Amino acid sequence: MTTATAPDFGRGPSSSLGSDHLAHVADPTTTPPRRGDSGRHGIRKPLGVLARIVLCLVFGLPLVFMFVSSFKPDLQIFGDLGSWKAFLPVGDISTDNYTGVFGRVPFAQFMMNSVIITVVTVVLGIVVNSMAAFALARIGFRGAGAVLGIILATLIVPFETLALPLLWWSNKLPFLGPDGFSEGWLDTYQVQIVPFIANAFSIFLFYQYFDSIPKELDEAAKVDGAGWFRIYRSIVMPLSGPAVATVAILTFLPMWNQYLWPLMSVQTEELRPVMVGIDYFKQLNTSWGQIMAYASMITAPVLVLFVAFQRSFINSIASSGVKG
Predict the structure, then answer these.
(1) Smallest Cα–Cα separation from 204: which of 255, 150, 275, 282?
(2) Which residue stretches of the chain have pLDDT < 50?
(3) DSSP state of 271
């Protein structure tokens, strides 16, 4: 006696095709795009391009106006203000304003002073601030969080409130000169450098970046007999190129633009930086063409520095500056 058996639909290729088809239908990732999505993406792209163009014009046109006006006489600068000629090198174009700058102020001396002050401050600032951040982020001693909080709290204190006490203390510090020890740092290079080497924001940037580096590298180096300074010099700092570039830029900009402090602490013309030198053009007859030429020459190093380090600057801000 034979028994009828039901056909086995779970076997054979037809069953696998059916299950694959059902799985494909049930897969939520295969949902067809909405009708409005392609249109939205099509609108966002031109809007993004338009926004970038507007931002370029907002930030770029003043620089173009400054550079173009540096080649024009004063009367033409004011005459072109009401039209697009203010941004175009048309009319009476010459380099007289640039030659007038060198004849009116010791520009080369001012530029050399600013370069010395800025470069020394940037180099010493990178060393001092990175070592402080390394101690806070990698060594991990007790109370490191409180120390970091106190350092960051100094950011809320404006420099103008500290300028007069700092000036008084600078005038009381001992100074070793050619004639031996004397009192007071006024009218020196160090009074324009030393107060700005340690910087709370630079320490914070280095701290954020150092904290993102795996600490297993420290343990491996300790096994090989390396000390903390060797770890700092041979492991952490070589991996912190973007942070170093960012701190260099953020230290360079305020030091290059120093005006109030040199005006208070330096009276000798041979030690003044470039920003103080712009006051020479406000005396007697103001020459706006020469002011534009002077401003163009002192702005060029800032633009060159940013263009050279912009990739590292953006990478550091993206990886550590906005890290919570």
Answers:
(1) 150
(2) 1-28, 321-324
(3) G
What backbone phi and psi angles, to 5 degrees, belong to 10? Answer: -85, 0
pLDDT tens per residue across span 182-205: 788 888 999 999 999 999 999 999
Q: Which two tokens stand for residue 190?
A: 């160090």
User: Is the distance from CB of 129 to CB of 250 less than 8 angstroms?
Assistant: no
Span between the terminal Cα atoms of the chain, in Å: 79
**Cβ 236 vs Cβ 213: under 8 Å:** yes
Q: CB of 216 within 8 A of CB of 145?
A: no
Taking only the tens place, the pLDDT of each residue in 275-307 is 998 888 877 678 899 999 999 999 988 888 878
The answer to whether 309 touches 126, Cβ cutoff 8 Å, is no
**What confidence score (pLDDT) does residue 13 get?**
45
Q: Are 210 and 202 in contact (CB under 8 A)?
A: no
Q: What global pTM score does this model have? A: 0.77
CB 293 within 8 A of CB 98: yes
Tokens of 280: 């020479």
Kindly state the helix (H) or strand (E) to which residue 55 belongs, with its residue range.
helix 35-69
